[in-house]
Automatic annotation (TrEMBL):
<protein>
    <submittedName>
        <fullName>Uncharacterized protein</fullName>
    </submittedName>
</protein>
<keyword id="KW-0472">Membrane</keyword>
<keyword id="KW-1133">Transmembrane helix</keyword>
<keyword id="KW-0812">Transmembrane</keyword>
<feature type="transmembrane region" description="Helical">
    <location>
        <begin position="39"/>
        <end position="62"/>
    </location>
</feature>
Length: 322
């Protein structure tokens, strides 16, 4: 069914900045909530570089005549379940991963490559104070490569644009799908990782490791999912490591929203946070075999005139890890 459930609203602006250094990340997250008018969409292009885009749209500007193009909402088959069901399912999926005979997707000594599709809402304000709306959704395909010696590369190419209904969109001025938009190449020693070493298999040790990276509010499930996204953009996980991630997330205040088909055509369970104080719901999509497929952020407030409520404002869909 279409996900159009009513959500409560909030009055703050989220300004979560994931920075390159651990200390910068910790300090930035402590400045996360600012009590000023407005709204901010934050997207992490990668946790490994200072590539966070914060697009702030003042609600004092003139209302826009039309909505911005945002991705279609996932069609979620609702589950009659709650917090305990979510925790139990995540634990069960973790156990399934640990019992599997899946090979290590990235053998030691080999480069780790992460392929994903990503998108975030970009709204700008024109010279006359009007909101300039993107006419379509323009996803990007990102390839992250982590080499054994610590070198790092990030290549981003244009995806195929589509409209708010998910249908292909054409624009002669848009980059050709598959064309390179930008890239970053860093030699060994130049890149600072949030997670420089292999993850522990024990969930309690992993939880402490994530706490050491830093939170403004360690009780916030939104922050835990944000850091999980960053982790999955840095490392290709062994099944036991991914199982530990699921067990850490099982201790959060997540709910089982139901099942869906994700943006890449894969079946998934949908786990979600309660609405944050800035009207954002974060979602985690996990396959029936226990692999994390995607994360999404949905705005559920009522203070914007340029996008409907609810609206997807960012997503990351992992296509491959090797």
């Amino acid at each position: 069914m279409s996900d159009q459930r009513p959500m409560p609203r909030g009055d703050a602006m989220e300004n979560l900045v994931i920075a390159q250094m651990r200390d910068d990340l910790r300090a930035a997250r402590r400045r996360r909530r600012l009590g000023v008018p407005g709204w901010s969409i934050i997207t992490t292009a990668t946790a490994a570089i200072v590539a966070v885009v914060a697009i702030m749209v003042s609600m004092l500007a003139a209302p826009t005549p039309s909505y911005a193009a945002t991705p279609p909402m996932l069609q979620i088959e609702a589950a009659q379940a709650g917090r305990e069901d979510a925790a139990q399912l995540l634990d069960d999926l973790a156990g399934q991963l640990r019992a599997s005979n899946e090979p290590d997707p990235a053998p030691p000594g080999q480069p780790q490559q992460i392929d994903l599709q990503t998108w975030s809402l970009v709204t700008t304000v024109g010279a006359e104070g009007e909101h300039v709306q993107p006419p379509y959704v323009a996803p990007e395909n990102m390839t992250l490569t982590r080499y054994p010696d610590g070198a790092w590369s990030q290549v981003v190419v244009a995806g195929r644009p589509y409209d708010a209904e998910g249908k292909p969109a054409d624009d002669p001025h848009a980059p050709e799908p598959g064309s390179e938009l930008w890239r970053i190449d860093e030699a060994a020693g130049e890149h600072t990782f949030l997670f420089p070493d292999p993850l522990p298999d024990d969930p309690s040790e992993l939880r402490q490791l994530m706490l050491d990276v830093g939170f403004a509010d360690e009780s916030s499930p939104n922050e835990w999912l944000s850091l999980t996204t960053a982790l999955l953009m840095e490392r290709v996980l062994r099944p036991s490591e991914e199982a530990a991630v699921l067990q850490v997330l099982a201790d959060l205040d997540l709910e089982l929203a139901g099942t869906t088909t994700d943006r890449l055509g894969r079946e998934a369970y949908v786990f979600e946070t309660p609405p944050s104080d800035v009207d954002l719901v974060d979602r985690l999509l996990v396959s029936p075999s226990g692999h994390i497929l995607a994360t999404e952020t949905v705005w559920v407030g009522h203070d914007r005139t340029d996008i409907p409520s609810p609206s997807v404002v960012s997503y990351y869909a992992w296509e491959g890890r090797a």
